[in-house]
Amino acid sequence: MSIPTLPEGEPAPTLADPHELLEGYLDYYRSTLLRKAAALPEEELRATRLPSGWTPLELIRHLQYVEQRWLNWGFAAEQVPDPWGDSSTEDAADRWQVPANMTTRQVLDAYVAQCDRSRRVTSAAKLDQRALTGGRFPAGEETPTLAWILFHLLQEYARHVGQLDVVVELAGGGTGE
C-alpha cells in the first residue's frame, strides 16, 4: 500500500516569517509522520508494541482529530459532528481507536484531508487572531491566539512523531529522521 505524501523537509533556515515558519514545521512533522508510517507493513500499522497499547494507525487518527479539534472546531468555531471521534469518550486519558471497519487507506486519506483543511483555516489568519467562540470555546471565554494553537500543535507532533520513531525501531525499521 502506498502512503500519501506531503511536502517534505524542514523550512529553510533563512525563513524569518513566524507564520510561514510555524506552518512549515507543521508540514514537516506531518510529512515525517507519514514517512515513518510508510516504513511499517500493514500488520505493524495495526499492532501495538507499547504497554500503553496504541497502534500507529490510532496515532495517525488521533492527530487528525487533534488538528480538527484545535483548528476547525476550536479556532474557526466550525460545527464538528464528533470532535472526540478518535477515542470512546472526551476523557483525554481514554485510548485512541480506529473503527474495526475502517481501512488503513481510509485512515490515511482522512488524515491528509484534515491537514488540507487545517492549512485552509490557518493560511489567511493572523497569528495574533483569537479563536472564535461557538465551537470548542464558549462565548464569553477568553480564547487562544492562532500562534498559541500552532505552537500547541507543534509540541503534539514533536512528541507523537518521536513516539512513532520508537515504534518503527521496535518493529525492525530504522531510526531518526
Automatic annotation (TrEMBL):
SUPFAM superfamilies: DinB/YfiT-like putative metalloenzymes
Superkingdom of the source species: Bacteria
Name this protein carries in UniProt: DUF664 domain-containing protein
Native source species: Streptomyces oryzae
